[in-house]
Write a structure and sequence with these properties.
2 domains, hypothetical protein PF0899 fold, 4-stranded mixed β-sheet, disordered N terminus
């Protein structure tokens, strides 16, 4: 049995119709890669069923959190991990003008990196995250061997 039994076309159109979004391939690709990485981590710890994945998503990562969660649900729907939840931890980008020596709010929908007051370039910190923070799973191993515990993808 393949882990993703639906065809990419049917998932794409069903998802696009519900989300009113015409090209959800970006978030679907990210959800597939996050799932693949998490499955590898679980298997490297003796196997089991995913329960929860926490993912850091930055404001500048060009990822829509709601679409990513929906894509995740489509990815895990007919797998042993069907009940696994994706938790998105949102990270804002911060703009600072060194000339004015103050933080600047950005205009909605715009990332013009110039200070609206003095016209100097802004320093932008953060907001580009796209990282698996941690995951939890129910182990196939007996409790005394590994147990159910959070595992990091870096523990491989």
């Amino acid at each position: 049995m393949t882990p993703f039994p639906r065809s990419p076309i049917s998932v794409r159109w069903a998802w696009a119709e519900k989300a009113r979004y015409t090209d959800p391939v970006h978030e679907m690709g990210i959800a597939l890669e996050v799932y693949r990485t998490c499955r590898e981590t679980v298997e490297s710890h003796g196997g089991g069923r995913l329960e929860r994945v926490r993912l850091a998503v930055g404001e500048l990562s060009a990822v829509e959190p709601e679409l990513l969660v929906y894509a995740w649900e489509a990815v895990v729907v007919e797998t042993p991990d069907a009940e696994a939840k994706l938790e998105v931890v949102w990270h804002r980008a911060n703009q600072h003008c060194s000339a004015c020596d103050e933080a600047k709010e950005r205009s909605e929908g715009s990332w013009l990196r110039l200070c609206p007051d003095c016209g100097m370039p802004l320093q932008v910190d953060g907001g580009d995250e796209l990282d698996i923070l941690d995951l939890s799973f129910e182990s196939d191993q007996p409790e005394n061997e590994i147990g159910s515990r959070p595992a990091s993808p870096n523990e491989r």
